[in-house]
Amino acid sequence: MHPISRRGLLGAATLLAPALSGAARAQTDIGRASAFIQTTGQQLVAAINDQSNNLAARRQKVAAVLRHAVDVEGVGRFIIGRWWRNASAQEQQEYIRLFDETLVRNLSARFGEYQGVRFSLGRTQQRTEDDVLVNTVIERPNSPPFSLDWRVGDINGQPKIVDVIAEGTSLRLTQRSEYSSVIQRNNGQVGALLQAMRGQIQQLAAREQGR
Amino acid sequence: MRQPMPFPMPPAMGRRLAAPLLVLALLAGCATRPPASDPEALAEYQQTNDPGEPANRQLYAVHQGIDKYLLRPVAVGYRAVVPEPIRIGVRNVLGNLRTPVILANDMLQGEPRRAGDTLGRFVINTTLGIGGIFDVAGKHFGVPGHTEDYGQTLAVWGVGEGPYIFVPVIGPSNPRDLVGFGLGILADPLTWFGQGVVVDALTYSRTGATVVDTREALIAPLDDLERSSIDSYATLRSVYRQRRAAEIRNDPTRAAPSAAGGTGFGVGTGEAPQR
Fold this sequence. Notes:
Number of strands of chain A: 5
Oligomer: heterodimer
Strand content of chain A: 15-25%
Largest sheet of chain A: 5 strands, antiparallel
Number of helices of chain B: 13
Shape of chain A: globular
Number of domains of chain A: 1
Structural class of chain B: mainly alpha
Order of helices and strands of chain B: HHHHHHHHEEHHHHH
Shape of chain B: globular
CATH topology of chain A: Nuclear Transport Factor 2, Chain: A
Largest interface: A-B, 35 and 33 residues
Helix content of chain A: 55-70%
Order of helices and strands of chain A: HHHHHEEEEEHH
Strand order of the largest sheet of chain B: 1-2
Mean pLDDT of chain A: 82
Strand content of chain B: under 5%
Structural class of chain A: alpha+beta
Strand order of the largest sheet of chain A: 1-2-3-4-5
Low-confidence stretches of chain A: 1-28
CATH architecture of chain A: Roll
């Protein structure tokens, strides 16, 4: 996406904002968050549908967009939750690195398959004081459209994606439950989670090679 | 990211399976409740709501075996052999047959508009849609299907879910949703309609078709879940409980699942297959 059109989008969102009801502060937040999701979504769709690239290159582009848009470290910290304190400094560092790779590989593998995807903003609403939930509708050829909610938080003054919610299921809540279960079943050892994550990354990588 | 599971099963099969499964569950025992001195662990234990986790994990392993060698291969074969338009027709017919139960629950929850939608869909699809084969109401009248079941009605009436339970073949559930599942069978007019060999054969065909159709719709979502999770039991549990909560509050952004669901994932209403 070119900087000019991004400014254009932000401008449009700012103009639209007063038309939406609600308090003044909430308006800016909602407008900014939906403009951010619109921009990010268009970048993703452009990367996915770019016919001049092969699958590997498309996935790389998707990964780059995601790394820029998602608050990877914050989401990772949320997901590991109370077990963060059980981890040594070295384990914490490795966890964030592995989490980044798992998240990006998982999402870009999934989005990479969405050839011909189109997306549009649905109804937008503010759910909490800190975050905005931006609703989008994803359309793929030969599939019924489905709704995807993006939770956008303010991270150091920048809007960032902190969660994705599909059909009432929050990605970060689900993954938090999954990771915690792995650590618990291994007597609170964060190392066991890291090992499982490494194994999973290997599998994902092997699968990408196989395509 | 469409997910999960469950299948209704014929009552006879349920009875035959129940005794050994119960023994297995008792042998496996319960999860250990964390001490009060560890409030975070205790909060998580309560949040997870799975005191019977060791037993549930064993039942999940049993299910995974059945799924690997029977349910999934049959679903994959069905997809390979039966052309897509026919599969959609089958799904729509099954969805249409479920409308009496959906209608009853719309009414029991005091949702006259949704009840009207359900009734209108049933009339239009049964007539113009030729016995429910075509979803005319959804495609041409703009009345999409939605799901309801007795488990949801009990929830709306204030009945708590109770502890998480995994039942092989049926899938993730809890006492409230299992009761609702049973009520759904008992309260279905088709359960009581006529008797004899032909009726029995039709009932079993419907159950069999529902199982195959549901599993077919779940091929990609469950493959995805297996691939992307390092503890698929825990992931499924979390997904089930979140989705169920969204279904109960009739989350407007959530479209109805197209295929059938047993206790937890709501009942399907037909429409296009997912890939």
